[in-house]
Amino acid sequence: MFPTLLKLGSFELSTYGAFAAAGYAAAILRLKAGREKWGLGEDEFWDLVYWLFGGALLGGKLGYILVERDLSLLWREPRYGFVFYGGFLGSVLAGWIASRRMKFSFLKLSDDFGVALPLGHAIGRLGCLAAGCCYGAHTDLPWGIPLAGDPSRHPTQIYESSANLAIALVVARVGLARTRDGRWKPGSAFLLYTALYAVARFAVELFRDDDRGFVLAGLSPSQWTAAAVLLAVGVIAWRRKS
Questions:
Q1: How far does Cα 85 stand from its chain's mean position?
Q2: pTM of the predicted model, to two decimals?
Q3: Per-residue pLDDT tens for 22-41?
Q4: Structural domain of residue 123, as residue ranges?
Q5: Cα separation of 133 and 141, whole Å?
Q6: Residue 71: pLDDT band with limits 50, 70, 90
Q7: If you count Cβ atoms within 10 Å of the first and of the last residue's Cβ in the chain, which end, N or C, has fewer?
């Protein structure tokens, strides 16, 4: 579609990279709005950002290696090839470790994370559209776009970007508002995000046609992960009420 945003001599700035950076920046700015509520100073906040960023990169790359079942991808494609759910789990684990080290509430962080993450993800997915990856199957619908040798494919990148933006708004208006006024327990807004994204991701995967690794019982790795995550959220929510 539009893989290179800027080229100056031998220097190239990929459009995917620019959107990914913009997504990270938007998520960081959204998280920064909740810094004082967690009792973090400026330096501690940026330490937390590095933890989350490192966890996302490491988890995303390990997820890609597991899906493709090829360890050599670690050094053959160090800058490309990441799996969202791997990055998600990596950043959650990193955030938990950071909260233990810095002694702040992980649950309060997670609620703000449930808004910041889909906001940044919505922007980052547009980079996938520009790069021509994560494309959809053929469609005769009027909004089909030309990608990967097909004149009309589902714009799955836009589907997921739109879903993420809607989720960010719902979690902010419904989940975060209720956790802050005490109607919901801390961490509930994050669980709401996790459940909504799992449903959205499972649905979007139905329209994808790119290589997503192995397929088991007709479901992609992301669909299996989304189903497992949704089940886990249900169990956690049930136990928190009991």
A1: 7
A2: 0.92
A3: 999 999 999 998 888 888 88
A4: 107-241
A5: 20
A6: low
A7: C
